[in-house]
Amino acid sequence: MMNQSPVETALSRAMIRWSLTKSTPVADTPRSWIFRVEQNGRNFGALKILKPVVAEEEGRGARLLQWYEGDGAATVFDIHGDTIFMEWLDGGPLADPVRAGRDDESTIAIATVVANLHRPRAGAPDDLQPLRTRFQTLFDTDVRAWPHTARDLYARSSGIALKLFDRPSAQLPLHGDLHHDNILSSDRGWLAIDPKGLLGDPAYDVANIFINPKNADNIAADPRRIAARADILSQRLNFSRKRMLGWAAAHAALSACWDLADGNPITGLLACLPNLLSAYDQA
């Protein structure tokens, strides 16, 4: 054990703890190391070893995932320290059918997942992050960080966010990062992964859908797609269309603030935001 890296040590300990027989590295992301593992040569599982820099946020998400008990989400078998032992999902993401032109079908699938995640359950984790805290970056961002031509979009979106926070709503445990690439196909249907673990307005949980999937801005920014997505989600989940589109615009602006802070382009978000704001105005 002497010369092992921290991830090798965590992996060795996990293999012993859960009687796993074989591990294959799958991904090394900024947030975690992921391995596919075998139990007794028959069943596959996933080990997710969190990186220290995000362990608090990711740990919160993992405990929420565990709380879902596999209902609309990947099943977490056990958590020990910063290592999560969970169900292996080898199906593709919900982004694939969207890019293949089946956006309505995908939005219906999202509504089903959200309904399952939001089902009443006892004993929610007590360390969920308030949605208002999550949005602090939006309110703290200097408008001059935004391109000159887009500053009115920032002002309008942050105004909508403040209005949403001022109007009371139900407070539910939220996935907090639900988008097409965080919903995977499985033999149990479509299942969510990688929640953030928030607490707030249930309608926020579909906000991220409206700026996704990645590399499909032509779909997300299309006013007809925005309207069709809003129709399906509001009908199936009984969310206020106005509130849902307000959160979608606010979240798009928040995402842009995060991207600007990281030095990433916001072209795709700026393609979506004016159309989300106009859909909000018309709702």
Automatic annotation (TrEMBL):
Record flagged with keyword Manganese: no
Keywords: Transferase
InterPro entries xrefs: Kinase-like_dom_sf, NH2Glyco/OHUrea_AB-resist_kin
Pfam families for this protein: APH_6_hur (PF04655)
GO molecular function, a single term: phosphotransferase activity, alcohol group as acceptor
GO terms classed as biological process: secondary metabolic process
Top-rank taxon, per record: Bacteria
Name under which the protein is recorded: Phosphotransferase
Phylogenetic placement of the source organism: Bacteria, Pseudomonadati, Pseudomonadota, Alphaproteobacteria, Hyphomicrobiales
